[in-house]
Amino acid sequence: xxxxxxxxxxxxxxxxxxxxxxxxxxxxxxxxxxxxxxxxxxxxxxxxxxxxxxxxxxxxxxxxxxxxxxxxxxxxxxxxxxxxxxxxxxxxxxxxxxxxxxxxxxxxxxxxxxxxxxxxxxxxxxxxxxxxxxxxxxxxxxxxxxxxxxxxxxxxxxxxxxxxxxxxxxxxxxxxxxxxxxxxxxxxxxxxxxxxxxxxxxxxxxxx
Length: 208
Description:
There is one protein chain. It is globular and about 50 Å long. It has helices at residues 24-30, 56-66, 81-92, 130-133, 138-144, 162-174, 193-202, and strands at 4-9, 12-17, 35-39, 43-47, 50-54, 70-78, 100-103, 110-115, 121-125, 151-155, 179-183, 205-207. It is of the alpha/beta class. It has one domain (18-207): UDP-N-acetylmuramoyl-L-alanine:D-glutamate ligase (3-Layer(aba) Sandwich), CATH 3.40.1190. A hairpin with a 2-residue loop joins strand 4 (43-47) and strand 5. It contains seven helices and twelve strands. Helices cover 31% and strands 31% of the residues. The protein has a six-stranded parallel sheet with strand order 7-6-3-10-11-12, sandwiched between helices.
């Protein structure tokens, strides 16, 4: 256990560790292979002028891949045009799509983004979406966790359902040494305070 304190104030998250825990970068210096599992929402941010790939776990996975880490991104898209575009964009970024499920009859998640007169964005998150419906067997979890991961990233949207939190728990149990990174990114009408507090308590660090 690593004693730590976390506070949430004014939309900011701060994590302070009470004892030393090696970072993923430092682990990479010790080993040439660093494995990260990023689990959760993949989104299409829809603006008036176009659509863009998004979702905190997806963004985290893309940046981790660019830094040279081995990334397993676990999510789902609908078996539809938006889903195919999202997968194609992931491939352009070099992200493996092996663990992104394609679900017939489900919607690829979209977020409508509108800018007010001051240029501030307002978000409408459309749910349910494919990532809300993904399922994983025991053999799936074993495959994703072999070899064990050094880090696990998760976001808020996906984790608002009990099934998603069960999936995260199963991944943590199979990867007990992994650091746990919570990409908070709270959106109006898209989270409940008790699950968010629980996610903060089980994370090694977070960002907003």
